[in-house]
Amino acid sequence: MTPFLQKAKNQLISNWIGKNAAIFAALTITFISTLIGAALADNSFGSSASERKTVTLACNPFPAAMIADNNVMPGFDVEILRAAFATRDITLLTPFYPWKRAYLLASAGHVDGLCSCSYLPERDAEFLYSDPLGDGEIAMYSTNEQVFDMIDTEDASKLTVGVVNGYSLEVYARKAKFDVMIANSEKALVNLLNSNRIDAALTFRPPMDYYLLNGDEDGLPDVERIRTKVISTSSHYSCISRKTEAPEIILDHLNAGLKTIRQSGLFDSILAKYRTGQNTSDAAPEQN
């Protein structure tokens, strides 16, 4: 083709494209929108089995329900939650934080929720509750058994009672008119008891019993002096943040998964593993 004809051809193509620019733009936008829609659909809940959705629930150290830095025995709540989500083809991530930080991250929607927590009416505005993960015991611990006789009397206000910062039990302790001292962990409660800085500790049995059983390893002296009195039993749940994306869908998948592993027997198998495991508590869990 001669240079003159080539130039004429190029000019004709350029003119045609210019006249149809709007059509090209519309087609391009439609194509891109289709690609984006497909990508979002592939990453949504209920997508094909080859695509997995990731959920992140913040855990706090709470042996034997949640055990940090232990890939083999991460805790029965952790294993139950992972198994439940796995039945829905969802990958669960369980980073560990101190309880107060985990709660703040979840309530703000920076993670999808909490591995587990107990029910308080004031938490309804921030969380959706799963079906129960289990029931557990709340107990008083003291080096003086006479303290237990004072708990439900008018002398209760004379008692200095330690609770872990942010636990629902802090609300209970203040309503009971105890003189409340805040601690950062169950280990700290044991130290307060042994130093006679508190009359009693109010906490959940699984983590407290764990630290009492492993007192020598953690350098906790005189744990044999500490006595226990169970005062109540209550349920605990996984808590999905209302501020995360599609919390109702996450909750539906979790509850369906919990039902599946209960029916299959896997739920009970996980609990049995921890009841017979080394350095774990036979008690069912209760949570913060």
Molecular structure report:
Strands 1, 2, 3, 4, 5, 6, 7, 8 and 9 form a nine-stranded mixed β-sheet that branches. The chain has ten helices and nine strands. The radius of gyration is 28 Å and the shape is globular. By secondary structure, it is an alpha/beta fold. Mean pLDDT is 81; it is low at 2-9, 20-50 and 277-287.
What is the fold's blueprint, element by element?
Layout: H1 3-19, H2 21-42, E1 53-58, H3 76-86, E2 90-93, H4 99-107, E3 113-117, E4 127-129, E5 134-142, H5 146-150, E6 160-164, H6 169-175, E7 179-183, H7 186-194, E8 200-204, H8 205-213, E9 227-241, H9 247-264, H10 266-275
Parallel strand pairs: 1-2, 1-3, 6-7, 6-8
Antiparallel strand pairs: 3-9, 4-9, 5-8, 5-9
Secondary-structure element series: HHEHEHEEEHEHEHEHEHH
Share of helix among residues?
40-55%
Nearest-integer average pLDDT = 81
| Through-space gap between termini | 82 Å
Query: Major sheet, described briefly?
Result: 9 strands, mixed
Would you identify the regions where 5 or more consecutive residues have pLDDT less than 50?
2-9, 20-50, 277-287
Number of strands: 9
How would you sum up the global shape?
Answer: globular
Provide the β-strand percentage band.
Answer: 15-25%
Rg, alpha carbons? 28 Å
Q: How many individual helices?
A: 10
Find the structural class using helix and strand composition.
alpha/beta
